[in-house]
Every structure is written in C-alpha cells, then in structure tokens.
Design goal:
CATH topology of the largest domain: Dihydrodipicolinate Reductase, domain 2
Strand content: 15-25%
Helix content: 25-40%
CATH class of the largest domain: Alpha Beta
Number of strands: 14
CATH architecture of the largest domain: 2-Layer Sandwich
Largest sheet: 8 strands, mixed
Low-confidence stretches: 350-354
C-alpha cells in the first residue's frame, strides 16, 4: 500500500510558542513535514531552523514562493495575524494561527474573506476543545447523563509581573487588542462556549488595578446562554495562586475542570460516578493538529475556523463593549457599523468607516 504524501508545513515566528508547534508537527510526522521557519530576527530564525532541521527565512513572501507549503503555523504577535494569515491564504496554503486570532472582529472578517470554498481555510489555536476530557463531557451532556446545564463558572486567574509587560507590544490596544480577556482567558472562554453552546447576552466590568498599561488587568462578566444557563467569567493577571477552572452545575451532576495551561482526564471531577474515557488525550496543540490535517486532506473547513472560530472573539468584543458602556450586550449586536467591531476599546481607527 502506497503511503500518503506528507503535507509540507512552515512556521512564522520562532518565539517560545513555536516550540509547542514544533512538538505538534513532530508528533504528526507521518502526515506532515516541517520544511521552513520565518523570523525577522535572522539569528533567531537560524537557531530555530537548526534545531528543527528546516530552512530559515526572514521574509514570509520569499518562504511562501520558494517552499510552497500546504500549511503555515502563525506564531507572531497578534497585530501581525491578519496580514500574515491573508498572505498565507492567498499563496494557496492553509493557515493555523495562534490566539488571539486577531485584534478585532473586522480583522477576523478580513481573514475569512480571503478564504476559498474547499480551502485554503484559516484555523485558530483553541487546543482545549480537543482533549479527551472535553469530548467526554460533551458526550455525557448529549446523552442526557448530566441533565440540563444551569450555572457555570469560567475562571482564568493568572499572574504576570511588570517584566511581562516590558515586551513593547503587550498591554496596548493597538498591538495586543486587549488585556487578560483577550490574551489569556480566551482559551477558557472558547472551551466554555464549546461545552455550553451559543450565548445570548453579556454584562461586564473591567479594571486596571496594578499594571501601568492601556488595557485592563482584570475583567468580570455575567453571560446568559441560549439554553438558559447563566455563567460568571473572571479573567485576571493579578492572581498569585494561578488556576484555570470551569465548573458546570447541571440538574443531575456538577462537573469541575481545574488545571493551569492544559488538562488531562483526571483534571475533570464529576459529582457522580460515570464511566471514564478509554483514552487520555491531554488538551494540546498536538491534539488539535490532526483535525487540521484531516480537513486539509478532505478539503473541508476545520474546527475553530469561520463562524466557529469567531465565537470567543465575539464574546470578548461584547465583554469590552459592556464594560465600556455599562449596557447589556446581546449576541449579534456588534455589526460592522459598531465601533467595537473595529477595535476592542471601541475606538475606530483612522480610515475605517463607521
């Protein structure tokens, strides 16, 4: 039997998160071959390329022209995501972009506008959806074993010191797009939406309590879901005891997930005994990547792309709008004529029509 041809992959941005992508590519080496890495810092590009056994580049356009990859992982700061993702798509390659997808809903819509029916598509790194623990929860909920979701809590309470914000692009609306709601809590919020479904309205507050930055360093929100469930959402970079947590109280059982940057099956605790999953797949880039590869081979939209990948970003935009205006914000309210469609702080950039 003839082996399937491996997909050619490349990586843009060789900072710390690039190593996580490298691990995922190596774990999927029967299906994919990493062939190139790009970084504007030539020394850093060469160092990563030597470690990964790939060709180094300092220009995205040159790499795309010479290597013709099938898939490109984008691991650069958020302000670069739209331009680089669109360039990748227009070259004919699929994109797998780090969180947050981009700085605004307008930016996200620009990405999807560059997609082509049947591919290439852009998918985004929301790896917590793909662990076996989350899959097990969804199965139990679908079977009715948990009953109806009633009350939920979504918590990303981490700690970042002043040194973290010494990186020039952090803590600024124009380059990071927001504070912990955007850059940290987005993963847990995406997982919450994946578990509970569509949200209908949000009321929120943000504050800047410690750090001398433009964005918030803590946010809280109340979210109502279409199924009637109510949830609290807390995002912080002020918490010495760091934790990521989701708790869902259903009519038949309470489920609590407690971890930090990734979970295993044992991190999911149920108030009633249920059969355990047969496998233990940690939430990770390695767990998500096979879904992207499968979509490329099938010419279909991957998970965490299109309207599916937009959900968490829309919730965050609504959170910021509610915190800024003091009003309840409803799903679908932030259209192209809304300033919060163009920037998370509601300040339309020059040249963007209202």
């Amino acid at each position: 039997m003839t082996a399937r041809k491996r997909l050619r992959a490349a990586l843009i941005g060789t900072g710390g998160i690039a190593d996580v992508h490298l691990t995922a590519f190596q774990a999927c080496k029967t299906d994919i071959e990493l062939v190139a890495a790009v970084d504007i810092d030539e020394d850093r590009a060469r160092a990563f390329a030597q470690k990964a056994g790939v060709e180094p580049y300092t220009e995205v356009s040159r790499m795309l022209a010479e290597q013709r990859p099938d898939l490109v992982a984008i691991c650069t700061p958020p302000s670069l995501h739209v331009g680089q993702t669109v360039e990748v798509l227009e070259s004919g390659a699929w994109a797998w972009c780090e969180k947050p997808p981009c700085l605004s809903l307008a930016g996200y819509d620009a990405i999807t506008a560059a997609e082509t029916e049947g591919g290439p598509y852009a998918s985004f790194v929301f790896q917590h959806r793909f662990g076996s623990g989350a899959e097990h929860f969804r199965e139990l909920l679908a079977k009715g074993e948990l009953g109806r979701p009633l009350v939920a809590h979504c918590q990303t309470t981490w700690y970042r010191d002043t040194g973290y914000y010494a990186v020039p692009w952090r803590g600024k609306w124009e380059t990071e797009g927001g504070g912990p709601a955007m850059g940290h809590g987005i993963h847990q919020m995406d997982l919450l939406l994946d578990l509970l479904g569509e949200w209908t309205e949000v009321s929120a507050m943000t504050a800047r309590l410690v750090h001398d930055v433009e964005t918030e360093d803590v946010s809280t929100a109340l979210v109502r879901f279409a199924n009637g469930a109510l949830a609290t959402v807390v995002n912080s970079v002020l918490s010495p005891q760091e934790v990521s947590r989701i708790r869902v109280d259903c009519t038949e059982a309470t489920v609590e997930l407690t971890h930090l940057y990734g979970y295993r099956n044992a991190d999911w605790v149920y108030s009633k005994d249920f059969p355990q999953p047969e496998v233990d797949v940690p939430s990770s880039h390695t767990a998500q990547l096979p879904h992207v590869i499968e979509a490329i081979r099938a010419g279909k939209r991957p998970p965490a792309s299109g309207s599916d990948g937009r959900k968490a970003l829309e919730l965050i935009a609504a959170l910021y709008k509610s915190a800024s205006t003091g009003a309840i914000v409803r799903a679908g309210e932030i259209t192209a004529r809304d300033p919060f469609h163009h920037s998370m702080n509601g300040r339309i950039r020059e040249g963007v029509p209202s």
